[in-house]
Structure formats: structure tokens, C-alpha cells
Amino acid sequence: MKVDRRLTSFEMFTLTSILIGIKLTDTTPSLFSQKAQNAFWYIPLLAFICILPAFLVLLYLLYKHNAKHFVHLFELLLGQGLGKSLAFIIFILSFVMIALDSRNYVEQIKIIYFQRSSILIIFALFGGVCIFGAIRGIEVVGYTTRIFWPFIRISFFILAALIFESVVWQRIFPIFGAGVPVILEEGVSKGSLFLDFFLLTMAFSAFRKPSQFIKGGLIGLIFSIAEITFFFFLYTTVFDYNSIEKISFPFHEVTQYVNLGDFFTNIETFFMVFWLLATFLRFILLLYLITWLFGAIFNIDEFELLLLPMGFFLMVIGLLPDNAVVTELIYRNKLLNIITPVIALVPFLLLLIHFFKRKKDLT
Amino acid sequence: MLKKKTQTKESLNTKLLINLDILKERFSFGLNNDFSIRLITAKFNKHELCLAYYASLVNSDKIEQTIIQPLLEQGGDSLFDVVTAESITKIKELEELDDHINNGKVVLIIDGESFGHSIDVAQFQHRDISQSENESVVRGPKESFTESLHVNISLIRKQIRNRELITEVQKVGKRSKQDVQLMYLNSIVNDQLLDEIRSKLTQLDVDNVQNIELLEQFIEERPYSIFPTILYTERPDNAATYIDKGHVVLLMDSSAACLILPITFWAFIHNAEDRYARFLYGNFTRLIRFIALFFTSMISALYVALSNFHSEMIPPDLLFAVTAARERVPFPLIIEVLIMEIAFELIREAGIRIPNPLGPTIGIVGALILGQAAVEANIISPIIVIVSALSGLTSFAISDPSFNFTVRITRFIFIISAGFFGMFSLMIAFTLWFMYGASLKSFGVPYFAPLSPTYKSNSDTYFRKAIKKEKWRPGYLLPKDLQSSRTFERGKTK
To answer: Which of A4, A132, A276 sits opposite B423 (nearest CB)?
Structure first.
């Protein structure tokens, strides 16, 4: 029986939410606080405002040209050679980004829960779940995300509710932290925080209707940004600005901080379970998308066979940096700054060509 | 193939003597003890005729009263005026003859005619209708299927009085031809689905499929999968509910159950009683059942993970109690848990196979030896007894026999994976296990529909809606008529 098994807008919403929203749990806040100090909590919002037009343009073009994914769109507008080269640049950038990101998450697992274990084994297990999860295909990833999403969000909500009593809201002052120019600069240059959404447009054709992708994606983006801002706000107000830049993983710090009544005083493992689920799903999805991108660039139809080597290379690159601090503050920071102009400007370039082409077609 | 074709063309002769020889040869008359041939001279046309049947499959009283007696005593114009049995069909080919005799019919061949008459007097022996044992309910019909096709169909028809309820027959098996009955509502079920099931059945190239339990394994898509993809139920009311929604039910003789397909994950958790009980009561049971599902698959693994790797999560007082209890036990914790879980499975398996009079003894022996004595001998700690008793007992809340196995096997996977890296590896195992489930399809229907992917339906997943709000048939079955209730449309009551 031919049942339509493609994804719908709710799955898109949850996929976006897992991809973007989960960033509130990693080292992103401590990265931002290095420069912006206690004003870091609204930097994601600034970054989002800067990058939103580019995304809207990209979605508009995908919809208008009825493209399968963004590589297809590049080819339609820029021609095969140029389109594929541009896509390849994006591939290289996001590949390194995902590798560093996965190292970041593996470090979290190691430092917080398994101090004495070897990073190689944790990384290998992590890579294993990503590969074997991704091999099930984008639809299954979508279903799973949709089903787990409520539980993950409820756990985050419980955490927020439990930490609320420790909030000292005066700590957001001075509201501009290290100064308006620094904040603006950080905000503008960190638009690449949303690179994952750019990659997600690879799955444009996996949905029942393109409009569902757009609707789910935009609502998901807004939801995630609200969530990130809210949690960053909590971090600022729970830890003061002096300590925030020294805390690498504020999310886990918060989970260790809260207790449920007098009897359950250490409930971080409860939150860790849901966080792990979300993390697995995020990297399963990222691995699938990056392999899909690779397959689209080199015209490989059965790209799912490449998941294993791709996952392996991600792991190898992720293992290269010496430690978490270097990964985060040097490599990831620089890479974020490099990616921002690419993903912010490319859609506008495409838009220009789109109008130019249309004019040409009309004449 | 060629030989087969010529075989099917073989048909009866006009001479009775030749026909008798054919019959005797085909059914090994004499050697085959219960195959009977009776010769009579009919009063109405003075011809000789023979009756051939299996004595063990027919109702002998009925043969005597409706066939032999009238033939000997009554006159008339044709056979149809004389024989009083309710159904008579003409048969010509030998293949048909085999079929009819094997299905408990009497074949009557008159001298001078090149065809026979098959008269239905079948009486297959079967058990009476009894209470459902594996899927018992407090509120709702108690009767269950029995090992007779006719009785089972009547049990379903009793609940759906609709001329569109079709009982279509398909033959399976090359040597022993068994009937498989497809039951569905013609005006609702998806045609493509029906074709798919039909072609699956006709493509079966096996000598004999005895019953529905074997048929399930022949037609399922993934024989090695840990999840079942076809629902097996012994309750006619359950079958009727699913037929109403647009599913297809398969029935066979000699099975006190039916197969329902396609099916989703939720059907294995749901129980017929969830709908018979009122909204709140039914959903409360569901909640309990989901907690039971969590406990039975996870609690032992969680115990291993928490006490081995995340002991800070256990509150100090409790942790002291656990450590004190474990102080004298020599085994690592995971071995201890595995010993107890395997012991529980052993008792369970032995309990099913044990002769009935010994039944109660095994419970006492199991509880005494494995509980008390093992603790006293310092083989296991008392906490483990509690944990594995909890995980074992809660597994009985999953009433579906197939899914029960899924959960029990899963428990061991989880326990072992929790032994490697605690929560981290447990979550890895869980994610992969779940994603494997999500990737399954039952006759094209995604396993976790309608939760994800979503379809128009009553969204009867974790919890059910009030009966009045149930307006739709499940959209993932692509039924011909999606709406099932129009009484309580928004804003108006008809």
C-alpha cells in the first residue's frame, strides 16, 4: 500500500528545534560571554535577526524554483560548475564545523560523567550511534525526533522551573555588558550559529509539501531562538558575569545545581538522559545531512552508503584538537566568524541572479 | 507445470465402475481406514450410485437422514427433489473432487453421468467457545475464538451486521490446501492493501500451512525483526473493531485466533478494554500500562547504570542501604542482575510447560529457592530480588504475547548495554532500538503512525479520546470512507 510516509510541518518544527535549540546546552554561552560578559544572553537573538533575511531569501528561492535542495538551487542559478564549487565550500566549512561540534559534545560527556574513560572510546560509541541511526534515513530521524521532542522539552522545562528560585534578575545589569559595539560585533559575526538550518534545507524534498518545510522551519527557528534566549537569560541571572566566563558547560552546571526536594539532591542524570537523546538525534541528523550534501555535490545517488566513512572522518577530525578549551575558544570561534559571511551573503547573491535571470527570460 | 495442467483437466467418467476405480486409487481405499464408499441403488431413477467421504470429517446422522434415506425411499424427477441436504454443487474435475472430499463433503456419483454432486455434511471436530485466556477483560465480551472457521466467522458477523462484510477465501499450501479467510468491509478497506495481501498469499510456495500462527511467519516482511508487525488476537470483538476501522482480518481453521493487518506499534499496547471502560478509567489503565512498559524494559538496566556509574544520583540513605546489602555478594552487579533475570525467565518458561497439577509447586519452589535461599547464600542481594521481581511482574501488563517477547528480549539488551558506559551506552541502545522500530512498516504503514508521521485519525496513541470525539478511521490505512461518525459534528447534534 502506498502510504505517504514523507514528513510534515510538525516534524520540521521538531527537527529545527533539536538542531538549533540544543545549542543552549553546549559551550556556546561561555564562548559568547568571553567578550560580551553578562550581555551574552541576547547575542543569539541579534545573530538571528542578522541571519533571518538570508534564510527567508533562501526559502523563497527554493520554493520559487521548486528545487530539491540547496545544491540543486545553486546549480539552477549559478550553473553546474560554479554551483557545485560553492556548495563544496559550504560542505568543507560545515564538515569541519560538525567535527568540532561533535568533539565539543563528546568532551561534555567525558568531562562531566566519565572523567577516567578514554575520549577515543566515547567518541567511537558516539560515532557508532550517529552512523547506525543515520542509516535509517531522514524520515525515521524525523519520526523519532517528533516522538522524543515533547519529553526533551518537558525535561528542559522542569530544569528551568527548578532553577528559577536561584535567579537574581538584577544580574542582567549592565544591560549592554561589555559595551554596545562589542555586543553588536559579536552578534553580527555569530550568525553562523544557524548554519545547521542552512544544512537542513538539504531535506527540502523530504516533506509532503514545500510549504510545510517553510512553515515548520520558521516556527521552529523562532521557538528555538526564544528558548535559547530564555535559557541564556537564566544562565546570566543564576551565575554572575564573573563566573559565567569560567563555566564551560552552564547547562550541566545548572543540572548539578538543582535539587528536587530534600531527598533527591543530585538529579543531573535525569536531565542527562534527555540531553543525550537530543544530542544523538542532532548529530544523527547532521551526519545524514552532510553526507547528503556530499552525495548531491558529487552526484552520488546512494549516498547513504557513505555514512560510515563520513562518520569515521568526522570522528578523526574531531579528535585532532588537543582539548576542549582549544576547540571551543580558538577553532570553533574562528570558524563561526568565517562561516557567517558565507551563509549570510550567498542567498542574496542567488537572489540577484534570480532577478537578473528572470529579467533576461522576460526580454 | 505441464504435468499439473494435464492433471487438472482429468475429469470423471460416465461409467460408475471406472469412477469407482479412480476414487479407490486416489484415496487409497482399503489402506486408508476412514475413507468410505457406499453403493446404493436410487429409488427415483433406478440407477446405481456411490457416495464417497471421509467418515471422520462428516456428520454421519446427517448423511443417513438427508441423503441415504431419501435416496432409498423417495421417488422424484431429479436428484435435487430427493436429497434434502441444504447445499449441492456439481463437480467435474478430479482436482475438485479431492478438494471437496478433503473438506468434509460427500461426493455422490450416479452411473451414467460424467459429473458428481458434492453435498455439504462436514462436521470438523472442535472445542467449544470458551473465555479468552490471554486477553481477559473485566468489562466487555468474554468469548474468544475457537479452532473452527465457521464458528469464528459467526462470532465476528455477530458484531458487524453488514452485508458489506466480506469473507473471501484464499487457498494456501501446495499439497495440503488450507482455506485462509480474509474478512474486511468492502466499502471501507483499501483495494491496494487487499491486492497486496492476496498476492502475498498466492505467492506462498509451501506444501502445508497448518494454522494462523505459521501463516503469520510466512507473510511478515521482516522475520528477524524484534518487533512484531502483525497483530495476533483471540478476541472476536477486537477483530470486529479493527475490521470497522478498515483493517483486514485473516482466519484459518484450527487456530483459536486471528491475524490483523496492517498494524502499528500502538495496537500492541492498547487493549480492547481501554475502549470499553469509560474515558478516564480507560486512559488511567493506559497510563499504568505505559509505566509498566517502562519498568519492565528499563528498571533493571537503570539499576545497573545508576549504581555502577551514576551512584551520586541515588540519595545517600538509599545508597548506604544498597551498598550494605551488596557487601557480602561476590559477583559484579551486572552478573547479579543477569542471574536473577535469567532465573525469572526460567521459572516463567517452566511454569508454562509444567503439567497443570504441578503448577502451584513451581511458584513456591521458585520463590523460596531463588529468593530466600539465594539471598541467604550471598549469591544475590535482596535489592536485586525487588528489582527483577518488579521488572518481571510488570511484563505481564503487556498482554500481547508477541510484544511481550519484544519487551523481554529488549530488557536483556538494555541490561548488557547499561553495563558498558552506564546511561550513555543505555541511551545509545535505546536510541538505536527505537529508531529501528520507527523504520519498520507493516504492509506499508509506518510503525509509529499516527503519532509520527501524522495522518488524519482519532490520534489514539498514548491516550484515547472520548468515544463521542472519535470521528475518523485511521488515515494511514487509506480507507475509502475516512469519516466513521457524524453524530456529534461541531456545533450541532443530530
So the answer is: A276
Q: What CATH number should be reported for the domain holding residue A292?
A: 1.20.1740.10
Rounded-to-integer distance, Cα B484 and Cα B244, Å: 9
Residues B453, A273: C-beta atoms closer than 8 Å = no
The answer to whether A170 faces chain B, any CB pair under 8 Å, is no
From the list B190, B313, B454, which residue is nearest A1 (CB)? B190
Identify whether A236 is part of a domain. Answer: yes
B425 Cβ under 8 Å from any chain A Cβ: yes
ipTM confidence score: 0.93
Count each helix (H run) and each strand (E run) in chain B, helices first: 20, 12
Of A1, A129, A266, the CB nearest to B313: A266
Instruction: Answer whether residue B493 shows pLDDT above 60.
Output: no
Q: Give the mean pLDDT of B75-93.
A: 84
- CA–CA separation, B405 and A87 (whole Å): 48
What is the arrangement of strands in the sheet containing B116-120, beginning at the earlier edge strand? B35-41, B48-54, B105-110, B116-120, B88-91
How many residue contacts between A and B have a Cβ separation below 8 Å?
A: 115
* Domain interval for residue A302: 9-354
Residue extents of the structural domains in chain B: 2-120, 149-263, 279-442
CA distance B139 to chain A (A): 32
| Domains contained in chain A, number | 1
Q: Say if residue B491's pLDDT is above 70.
A: no
Kindly state whether residue A361 falls inside one of the protein's structural domains.
no
> Rounded distance, CA B84 to CA B95, Å?
26
Residue A142 has pLDDT above 70, yes or no: yes
B281 Cβ under 8 Å from any chain A Cβ: no
Is pLDDT above 50 for B2?
no
pLDDT in tens, A212-269: 999 999 999 999 999 999 998 898 888 877 777 788 888 888 888 888 887 888 888 8
